[in-house]
Amino acid sequence: MTFNDVIAGIEIVRRRGTDTEIAGVEYDSRRVGPGSLFVAMQGETTDGNRYAGKAIELGVAAILTDSAEAFDDIARLHPEFPIAEIAHGRNALALASASFFGHPERKLKLTGITGTNGKTTTAFLLDAILNHAGRKTVLVGTIEYHVAGSVRPSPHTTPESRDLLELLREGVDAGASEAVMEVSSHALAQGRVYGIAYDVAIFTNLTRDHLDFHRTMDNYFAAKRRLFDGSLLHPPREAVINIDDPHGAELATVAREAGAEVFSYGLNAGEFRAERAQMSASGMTFTLQSPYGQVEVRTRLTGKVNVYNLLAACAAATARGLSLEEIRSGVAALACVPGRFQTVDEGQPFTVVVDYAHTDDALRNLTALAREFVTTTGGKVITLFGCGGDRDRAKRPLMGKAAGEGSDFVVLTSDNPRSEDPQAILQDALPGLAATHTRYAVEADRAVAIRLAIHEAKAGDIVLLAGKGHEKTQTMQGKTIPFDDAEVAAAALRELRSQGSR
Fold first, then answer.
1. Pathway involvement (predicted)?
2. Distance between CA 156 and CA 145 in Å, rounded?
3. pLDDT category, 502, cuts 50, 70, 90?
4. Measuring CA to CA, which of 148, 244, 328, 451 is 20 to 30 A from 93?
5. Could you report the per-residue pLDDT of 147-198, keeping only the tens digit for each?
6. Is 426:403 a contact under the CB 8 Å cutoff?
7. Is 158 labeled as ligand-binding?
8. Domain check: are 22 and 64 in the same one?
9. 471 a known binding residue?
C-alpha cells in the first residue's frame, strides 16, 4: 500500500515528497521500523513530534504531523522525505489505520456501549447472546478482549484507533461478523473511534466520574454524545437509550436528529421494559416486554442495575436480528461477569461479593442491592472501598458518604493510590464517611483491610469488596504488584475456617 492510498480522505494542510510504499502505521516511535508511516501527534502527556527525527533515523517511510513547526523542520533537514501536515492528529491516525488495515470496521456489525456504569456487563451480555446464537464476535472492553473465541488481556477499555483497527482486522480474518465494544469517554473525547460507523450505539447512564480528565459534567456528557450525534463522521443506525437516566431524553433527541432509529429502555418506561422482577443473591427472573413481544428472562446476574444492563443488551440483540427466544437462551447461558457482583464462596455462612463499584453512584447501587438481600436474613451490610489516586479528588467524600449511608460497617482502604500518599487519599474520603455516623475502620493495607471486613462478618451478613473488581494488580508509588480481591478474600475465608471461629 502506498502513502497516497493510506492518506486518502485525510484533511491535509500541506505536503512534501513523493509517493512511497507503506509497510505499517504507528503512532508510538518505539514501535516504528523500516517502511512505517509514523503519525506524529500531540497527546495529553507527550508530543510525538519530538520523536520525528528519531523515527526517520529508524527508517520510517513517511510521516504525518499535526505540527507546522515539525513539518518545517523535517522539510528543511530532509527535503525529499515524504511528509504531510494534517489538521487533526488522532482523526488522521484513525483514517490512515482504517485504510492500511483494509477497513475491517466496514466488514463487521459494530455495537458501541458508552455510559458511566454498566458498560462491561452489558458488553459481556451482548457478546454472550451473540455467541450463543452462533455468531463469531470481537469483544473490546475493560476486563479483556475476545477475538473470535481467543481471549487476550485488555490494556485499555478502548484502545487507540490504530490498535483497535488491527484487532478488528484480526477478527475479520478469523471469521468474526460482529464486534461489541465498550467506548470510554476518554476515547470519544480523543477521537480514538473517529470514522467508525456503529450499527448500534448504547447509552447506559451518566453519573459523576472521570472529572480529573473532563473537568465538568457538561464536558463529560459532551464526550458521550459523540457516539450518537454524528460528530465522529457517522451516526449509529440504531441507538439504544436508557430513558430512566436524566440525560436519556436529550440523547434520544440528539440521535434522532443525527438520523438514527431510537429504542428506549427502562424499568417502567421505554420500548424495552422489565416486569415482575424477582431477585435473590443467586440470580433473578423477569418478563422482558418489547416491541417484538415478551419473553421470560432467567439469569444468574442479579440486582436492579443488572436489569438495566440486560434490557440494554436485549434491545441491542434485537437490533442485530436475534429473536426473543435466542436472547432468552443466550442470557441464561452467561454464568457471571468477572468482578461484577462476583461471589467468593469457601463454605462460609455469609456472602462475600467482589464488585468494580468505584463511584459514589455505583456504591449506592451496590449497597442498596446488598440491603435487599440481608433484609430477609437479618444480617448486616459490610462494605470495603477505597478511592483511586491521581483521579478526581472531589468524588472521594461523596464515595465515603455513599458507603456509609448504605452500610452497617465500612472499611476504608486503598484502591490503586498510584503516585499519591495512601493516607492522604483516606483523609479525603473520611469526612463524607464520618458524617454518616456509620461505624467504620480505616486500614491502608488492602489485604489487611479485606481480612478485617471478613472477620467482622457473621451468619447472614454480606461483605462487599468494592472498587477493583476484575483487576489483578495494585498500583502504588510507581510499582504495580499482583493483587486480586477475590483471591485475597478466598485466602482470608480459608484462614477463618481453619481457626474454627465460625
1. Cell wall biogenesis; peptidoglycan biosynthesis
2. 10
3. very low
4. 148
5. 988 999 888 888 999 999 999 999 999 999 999 999 998 899 998 999 999 9
6. no
7. yes
8. yes
9. yes
